[in-house]
Amino acid sequence: MPPLIFAGECRNLQAKLAACATGEAFWLQGGDCAESFSHFSANRIRDSFRVLLQMAVVMIYGGGIPVVKVGRLAGQFAKPRSADMETIDGIALPSYRGDIINGSEFTADARIPDPRRLVKAYNQSAATLNLLRGFSSGGYAGLQRVMQWNLDFMGRSDEGQQYLELAGQVDDAIQFMTACGMSPDNPLMNETDFYVSHEALLLDYEAALTREDSTTGLWYDCSGHFLWIGERTRQLDGAHLEFARGIANPLGVKVSQKMEPSELVSLIATLNPENTPGRLAVIVRMGADQVHKKLPGLVRAVQQAGQTVTWISDPMHGNTESCNGYKTRRYDRVRAEVEAFFDVHEALGTVPGGVHLEMTGDNVTECLGGGSSIEATDLESRYHTFCDPRLNAEQALEMSFFVASRLRRRKQTRCLLHR
Ligand SMILES: O=C[C@H](O)[C@H](O)COP(=O)(O)O
Ligand SMILES: C=C(OP(=O)(O)O)C(=O)O
Ligand SMILES: [Mn+2]
């Protein structure tokens, strides 16, 4: 199996992750909770890519800093589950663990793990990454197309209108730069960097794609650029940390309200013993009402230990609830967790380095509220996720405007402080 990515790309991404730790850039990571074989299509890949482009333009324009675009794409198949078994109407079957392992259909056959799925997931990841590379370097991401990136259904929404107004201002700025002599063929105008990421959960798969880099002698997991260890598998004495500390990729680790400060310091020391900037992101997912209680202690402990990490907010996984038999998240609580994340760092003088969202470019009804005003009775109409509920394109774009407003506020505060 050829590697899917090249070690040099990981080194580039590591430098960008380091820039997010100091506030010189901002990390935008988004995509499906679980990619699936049945939803594999060029249009879906394009729409996810496009809404991430739109979000990045909004955040760049608001914050005045580069935005590092990272998809939860081209490998985000394997899913940890809270329970080994799923019971419906008295029938208990093994839980669905992602298309790379078993099927989501509630039948005994579908739930039997099938190793052929590993190969199918690899091939789909390769095809997805190939198309993303084409979009990134082939002109689709050209800034002069900023007005065309609107998704069809977005035109009617407030977010869509708000985006078009901002895109118009970006367009004016581009025309100004072109009039000043910047060539429209400048790569800055036509190409963009885009990276892929997934949870390093299935160690057999990840190990099979781990290669020694001929230029450095270091080992890279070539299944994706950025890999993270999940909340359920971050035990200090566990196999996942042992695997992760052996690869040179930039890494993330998910951290809930259960994490103790001393444990986090030990975990960081394990994954980043050289204290290399950009090596490690701590992805905080606590729930909106836990962040103010638990995050300050973690940040202070890391500061006191002199450790360098990039702090990222995952405002999704701590805010899951059940409604009408559906797993859902309320946009207001998702936004409140991001707000609390920025507030805590602002109070401590540390840096909110990025966000990590479960989202889609599709017009789904999986998360309540937001500009789409999705209500409990709407959930059944377009609930397509294979695991956790995702922000739809409107809600994701709305979130980017909120993040942009906080980045702008931080920029203004920094200007005042450095006068
Ligand atoms: O994506 C994260 C986890 O795999 C997911 O939240 C687990 O969902 P469950 O609690 O329904 O098992
Ligand atoms: C499993 C996930 O999250 P967590 O480990 O934080 O529950 C995920 O991001 O898909
Ligand atoms: Mn999830």
Automatic annotation (TrEMBL):
One of its GO terms (biological process) is amino acid biosynthetic process. Phosphoenolpyruvate binds at residues 72, 231-232, 254, 285. Binds 1 divalent cation per subunit. The enzyme is active with manganese, cobalt or cadmium ions. It is found in: Plastid, Chloroplast. Its cofactor is Mn(2+); Co(2+); Cd(2+). Signal peptide: none annotated. This is Phospho-2-dehydro-3-deoxyheptonate aldolase. Pfam families: DAHP_synth_2. Belongs to the class-II DAHP synthase family. It is an enzyme of class 2 (transferase). It catalyses: D-erythrose 4-phosphate + phosphoenolpyruvate + H2O = 7-phospho-2-dehydro-3-deoxy-D-arabino-heptonate + phosphate. Pathway: Metabolic intermediate biosynthesis; chorismate biosynthesis; chorismate from D-erythrose 4-phosphate and phosphoenolpyruvate: step 1/7. GO terms for cellular component: chloroplast. Its main location: plastid. InterPro entries: Aldolase_TIM, DAHP_synth_2. The keyword Transferase applies. Mn(2+) binds at residues 33, 317, 358, 388. Its EC number is 2.5.1.54. GO terms for molecular function: 3-deoxy-7-phosphoheptulonate synthase activity. Keywords: Amino-acid biosynthesis, Aromatic amino acid biosynthesis, Cadmium, Chloroplast, Cobalt, Manganese, Plastid, Transferase, Transit peptide.
